[in-house]
Predict the 3D structure of the following.
Amino acid sequence: MNKLTTEATTVLRLIGPEPLHRQLADGLRSSIRTGGLAAGEPVPSEAELSAIHGVSRGTVRQALAQLRAEGLIAGGRGRRPVVHPGPLAQPFEELVSFSAWARSMGMEPSGRVLAFDLRPASAVVADALDVPAGTPVHQLVRLRLADGVPMLIERTAFAPGVGEAVAGIDLEHGSIYAALAEHGIRFDAARQAIDAVAASRPDAEHLGVGRGAPLLRVRRRSTAADGRPLEWSDDRYRPDRVTLTIDQLANRPGIARRLSQGGR
Amino acid sequence: MNKLTTEATTVLRLIGPEPLHRQLADGLRSSIRTGGLAAGEPVPSEAELSAIHGVSRGTVRQALAQLRAEGLIAGGRGRRPVVHPGPLAQPFEELVSFSAWARSMGMEPSGRVLAFDLRPASAVVADALDVPAGTPVHQLVRLRLADGVPMLIERTAFAPGVGEAVAGIDLEHGSIYAALAEHGIRFDAARQAIDAVAASRPDAEHLGVGRGAPLLRVRRRSTAADGRPLEWSDDRYRPDRVTLTIDQLANRPGIARRLSQGGR
DNA sequence: GAGTGGTCTAGACCACTCG
DNA sequence: GAGTGGTCTAGACCACTCG
């Protein structure tokens, strides 16, 4: 019996509607986040977890597989898995929501609305949102700041049904993502195309860089669980302020290189 | 019995040292790639796959879980899973190897070596490769072309033991990745930082863009299965030729925004 | 040699989807 | 109501790692 192990891993009360393997994964995940299980340390063995929580080994393996997929633990093959040293923290919310991201970095997010109105969808926007070209959709242009420092300019178009909900939000301070969640509108996935563009004159002025300076551009199409598009966004970052990072594992989806389509 | 299903899915000879679930996953994956299972079409049910190939349902589920993780199939919950409409093809090899990527796009890759020598590791390189600063390491600067068109400039530093193997390769035409694989050196994972930079004068000339034009920069640290660093690379793409794409799913690792570290 | 994770089986119950 | 995938159990054998 490993006393330390037993102490580091709180015995869970496995009840309620949540599947056992998810409860187990959630429990282990928070043990890792709060430091009960430190980076580099071994995770309790599958047999131990099975005995401690009174679930079968299959259930334990299901929970561990989830944590592996999230990059939180690594190892195996006769060896005990260890808590991954320096995993990338990347909750989905922090990808879609600038506000959530800035707060997670200990900064105060804000936004300066440059434009917000109902405009006919361009061909690109119409294609992304699955509406006929020319359909009036809510479109927002915002300068986003963290602790008062400009980080990016976002141009977002919202799908019908989403734009109306956005219209009621405090766009200078509130988080669109959080407000939409209250309306039951949840982001489930996003496809993003990343490249670089020169700053236009107005963008350069808002961001405080020289005209033509390189900006990191991320074009994102976010969808709901059923695949319906929710928003399309063109975000342009100051690359000296924000960098994107990705951990790519063999046989796991990651970044794909693409030939650029047409011009801009 | 579903005749179509049985035809679309070749019965596998499940033998040899490969685990059954991997053989099954490989078989289904190639059915999807070759069009035997078209996008949007339902995958045979777990019970059918189990009966057809004579394996337990657990094994079938393990294979399907892998394909799900790769983004090739989607769906579930009482519904049959379907072949994902328009999944991102992203074999790991095509991320690390420009040659493999170009060929997969139907283009002929080549490289123009601008420099290749043993040079003392800078602080950045030393940190990435886990060697003391100043250690001599093999460093390569190459212009990469597809069908003769310049796509990016790569600056790569190789870990001790890897650089020696690279020295024997035809760098103008061969694939470093493939050649290293023959030496038993396999890339397992990579961490990448993505931003944008202005083209320096020499880079601009090689790539055929104006000086100061925006380039998409990807800095990559590739590691072996045991975590040892293999290479560190700084790749700068013409963004009008190459774009990066990523599918991000909720609760799956993906892109993380980071505050930029120091200057360049 | 003891312990570990990787693999595989057989069986069970359930919520959900569909016609 | 029939079929589906989601979940869970109990048990087994193996290659691998470690001291």
